Amino acid sequence: MSEFLIYFQIGLKHVLDINAYDHVLFLMALAVPFSFKDWQRIVVLVTLFTIGHTVALLLSVLEIIVIKANVVELLIPITILITAFYNLFTAGKTSKKDGLNLIFFVTLFFGIIHGLGFSNYFKAILGGSTTSKLLPLGEFALGIEAAQIIVVFIVLMLSYFVQTVFRFSKRDWTLVMSAFIIGVVLPMIIENEIWIR
Asked: Cys-Cys with 53: which of 12, 27, 115, 130 at CB 3.0–4.6 Å?
């Protein structure tokens, strides 16, 4: 049980680490267009992101996928930027439900990219054979899922508060938050080490 808690807590801290806020930014961009009445869709999206994240870690542990860290560090903020821009262009549009299958697929794919960003650290903390890494990987994934649900719940609470107390429309809230996320993530892309040669 104590080993379960160790990897579960690593998963929690991976998402909730204030110094690695890119994961939280992505979750904010993902959740901001939704409200509590959409909770089932949000849970599916969060779980797909966790599955993608876990698949990437598994492929990395098995050494099926090996990718340079600086490439992944560039791709992660790009996934956040794409999600935030998508929100800008679809805010207030009623056809959002029609594009849900695309959103599900893209979220899964973005989960894979984010998982690759953590793969080197994850491999470093795990010793032993490949098969002995599978259980800790599952425990870590549960920690990721729990932390993501916490973040999404906070975003939905904040959204509800702003729309109820300050009378923001859902569209305006989505536009403001997406613009904020873009403002935070653009410097991450511009200042990435990949541009320095």
From this structure: 115
Token output for 98:
């029609």
* Burial bucket for residue 71 (CB in 10 Å: 0-12, 13-18, 19+): middle
Residue 160: pLDDT above 90? Answer: yes
State the burial class of residue 165 (Cβ atoms within 10 Å of its Cβ: 0-12, 13-18, 19+): exposed
Q: Is 137 exposed, middle or buried (0-12, 13-18, 19+ CB in 10 A)?
A: middle
* C-beta pairs of 58-62 under 8 Å, 24+ apart in sequence: 58/134, 58/137, 60/115, 60/116, 60/119, 60/120, 60/122, 60/123, 61/119, 61/122, 61/123, 61/126, 61/130, 61/133, 61/137, 62/130
- Chain center to CA of 67: 19
What confidence tens digit (pLDDT) does each residue in 82-124 have?
Answer: 999 999 999 877 655 556 688 899 999 999 999 998 887 887 7
DSSP-assigned letter for residue 69: H
Q: Is the model's pTM score more than 0.85?
A: yes
pLDDT digits (tens, 9 = 90+) for 4-45: 899 999 999 989 998 889 999 999 999 999 999 999 999 999
Q: Are 190 and 110 in contact (CB under 8 A)?
A: no
